[in-house]
């Protein structure tokens, strides 16, 4: 067993970083300020903090915008932000600390360390610890139910284990690497089992305290009292949401300041400021290729937790640049680390904006000021338009699964000489929308009106459309063609074409779940054997199906009960809308029964409804699948229209009293 001890001097030297000085500015401060304020004024960014540290000195550390409008608190260098998937770096470090201690080995099988767990898919036995950290485990993606919330969910890990135990892997372990949150949540479980401690307590004791990272804690809504100001999230209309809790702690559930994130990065280039030994540090900085690497498909140079362990243009300039991004729906973040220059850049923001590109702009400016010439862009790509579509594109036409989860139809129009992508929302011609039009290039690639390059590629497993990942200067698989089964299966009668309502909603669910609260399932005549239920699911029986793609993230799996009225969708439960009762004109009192978390009501009349809520009760109203009212944010009186659905959310035994002023139905 080996434990690395950090000298007190090393810790103090990092803790003594000035949090206000700007060393050797050379116009850097002005550049960063203009870049950030431009985004605050023109995009969805609410506030932000930026830190740049080089060779132990703070080149820049400032906050921008208003962190809390109600209290008139400006964002500054002490402001806390949820960092989303940058939390994966801390999870990877927790695992590597256990490797250092001789408790785990990266190539051990996960099941050998979690003997109490059982899995229906026997391939789970082939998953190594390393595969949890480089996205190659084959786990479906994200058990999202309860993952993003406004309250701590102590039962999330139990539901996570129950969900993955009954699921099937997307691919054989180690052969592909679609981005996977589930791997890090399972790593969180593994850390608890191997250490005998709560995950965050182990992280705090073994990593955070030794490194002096005192601002790092659980996500903002889970921290209780806050010693430093927290950046609040505001919708585009100015309404505030409660502080976000991310219950996937290992995958995305931490928060901190931008400066502490740079301090954390210091351990990757300052040996005296590290909790890992030399061999483990080399492993953390190295790419982690999978079996599909180098076979024609784009492949991120994932590391242990890193999104990328190198970026082409910087590598050509002799620099290794490691990158990790994060996004939670409310917060966006990026961390760049350059070990050879002993430099790190952290950008954290509330709201949605192009934070990774902002971080890259700052990096490019710093290198340019130091005479480092970096040639960005792919010089090998032609931008000359071809006079006609090549003959071979025909085999790529058809339906595709998408990295964003929907159903896409790829079509070629030879008369107009274009490739069109259509998003399919239902079986009718009026239920589709064009999302992309591209022109062919003479080298066989395609470009859109923003000059972004798309490629059609294939391998022995299928056909794909790759799209640009600009921050990483590479491509990513955006679409994967859906194979047509030889013997298509039809769903049980009543399953297709139904409106499904989520049955396991909770009082503290984040607004991130609005879009999945109501789902209309459907089939396409020219896509036999598939049921579209949020995602295109290939049916293996009238009651079961799964997305058959291997290269796309967050794949869903469906199991419908024999009645055809309840569906399990990778950890989330739905009920058919026919079971919803009608909201009476005179109002009503509703008591949630045992094991009941929510009650859906169908609205057939227009008017206003006042809701007397229990202490932990919540009311939402949906029209055409869109949430137009949420009592947690909008008050206790809701205007309703015919055809909408109201859902009352709480706990067993909660009573809701609805006073209605509805027009009589005519």
UniProtKB/TrEMBL annotation:
Its signal peptide is: 1-23
Q: Which residues form the Beta-lactamase-related domain?
A: 44-357
**What subcellular locations does the record give?**
Membrane
Keyword Signal attributed? yes
Please provide one cellular component term from the Gene Ontology annotations of this protein: membrane
- Report the superkingdom from the record: Bacteria
Q: What is the name listed in the Swiss-Prot or TrEMBL entry for this protein?
A: CubicO group peptidase, beta-lactamase class C family
- KW Signal (keyword) present: yes
Among InterPro entries, the record links this protein to: AmpC-like, Beta-lactam-related, Beta-lactam/transpept-like
What are the UniProt keywords, alphabetically? Membrane, Signal
Q: What is its main location?
A: membrane
The record, for Gene3D superfamilies, names: DD-peptidase/beta-lactamase superfamily
């Amino acid at each position: 067993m080996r434990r690395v001890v950090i000298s007190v001097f090393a810790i103090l030297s990092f803790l003594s970083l000035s949090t206000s000085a700007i060393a050797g500015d050379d116009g850097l401060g002005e550049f960063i300020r203009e870049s950030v304020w431009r985004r605050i004024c023109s995009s969805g960014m609410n506030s932000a903090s930026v830190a740049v540290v080089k060779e132990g000195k703070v080149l820049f550390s400032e906050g921008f915008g208003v962190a809390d409008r109600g209290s008139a608190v400006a964002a500054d260098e002490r402001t806390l932000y949820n960092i989303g998937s940058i939390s994966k770096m801390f999870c990877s470090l927790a695992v590597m600390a256990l490797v250092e201690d001789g408790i785990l080995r990266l190539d051990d099988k996960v099941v050998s360390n979690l003997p109490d767990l059982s899995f229906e898919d026997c391939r789970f036995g082939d998953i190594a610890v390393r595969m949890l950290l480089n996205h190659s485990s084959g786990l479906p993606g994200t058990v999202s139910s309860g993952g993003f919330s406004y309250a701590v969910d102590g039962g999330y890990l139990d539901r996570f284990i129950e969900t993955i135990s009954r699921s099937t892997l997307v691919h054989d372990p180690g052969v592909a690497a679609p981005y996977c949150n589930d791997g890090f949540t399972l790593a969180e479980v593994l850390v608890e089992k191997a250490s005998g401690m709560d995950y965050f307590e182990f992280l705090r004791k073994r990593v955070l305290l030794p490194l002096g990272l005192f601002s790092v804690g659980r996500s903002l809504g889970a921290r209780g009292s806050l010693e430093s100001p927290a950046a609040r999230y505001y919708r585009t209309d100015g309404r505030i949401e409660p502080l976000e809790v991310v219950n996937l702690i290992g995958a995305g559930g931490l928060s901190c300041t931008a400066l502490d994130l740079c301090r954390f990065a210091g351990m990757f280039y300052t040996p005296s400021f590290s909790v890992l030994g030399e061999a483990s540090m080399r492993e953390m900085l190295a790419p982690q290729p999978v079996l599909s690497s180098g076979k024609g498909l784009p492949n991120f140079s994932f590391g242990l937790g890193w999104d990328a362990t190198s970026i082409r243009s910087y590598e050509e300039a002799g620099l290794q640049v490691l990158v990790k991004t994060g996004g939670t729906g409310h917060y966006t973040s990026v961390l760049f680390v350059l070990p050879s220059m002993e430099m790190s850049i952290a950008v954290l923001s509330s709201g949605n904006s192009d934070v990774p590109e902002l971080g890259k702009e700052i990096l490019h400016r710093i290198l340019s000021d130091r005479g480092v010439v970096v040639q960005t862009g792919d010089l090998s790509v032609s931008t000359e338009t071809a006079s006609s579509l090549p003959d071979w594109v025909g085999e790529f036409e058809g339906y595709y699964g998408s990295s964003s989860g929907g159903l896409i139809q790829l079509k070629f129009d030879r008369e107009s000489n274009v490739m069109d992508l259509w998003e399919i929302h239902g079986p009718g011609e009026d239920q589709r929308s064009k999302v992309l039009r591209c022109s062919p290039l003479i080298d066989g690639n395609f470009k859109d009106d923003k000059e972004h390059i798309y490629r059609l590629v294939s391998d022995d497993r299928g056909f794909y459309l790759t799209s640009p990942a600009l921050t990483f200067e590479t491509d990513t698989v955006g679409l994967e063609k859906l194979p047509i089964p030889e013997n298509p299966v039809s769903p049980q009668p009543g399953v297709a074409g139904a409106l499904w309502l989520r049955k396991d909603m909770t009082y503290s669910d984040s607004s991130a779940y609005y879009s999945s609260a109501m789902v209309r399932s459907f089939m396409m005549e020219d896509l036999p054997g598939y049921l579209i239920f949020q995602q295109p699911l290939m049916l293996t029986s009238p009651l079961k199906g799964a997305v058959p793609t291997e290269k796309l993230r967050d794949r869903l799996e469906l199991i419908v009960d024999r009645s055809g009225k309840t569906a399990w969708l990778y950890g989330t439960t739905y009920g058919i809308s026919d079971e919803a009762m009608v909201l009476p004109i005179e109002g009503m009192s509703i008591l949630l029964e045992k094991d009941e978390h929510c009650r859906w009501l169908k609205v057939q009349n227009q008017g206003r409804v006042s809701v007397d809520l229990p202490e932990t009760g919540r009311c939402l109203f949906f029209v055409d699948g869109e949430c137009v009212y949420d009592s947690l944010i909008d008050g206790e009186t809701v205007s309703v229209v015919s055809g909408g659905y109201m859902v009352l959310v709480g706990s067993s035994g909660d009573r809701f009293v609805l006073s209605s002023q509805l027009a009589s139905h005519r």
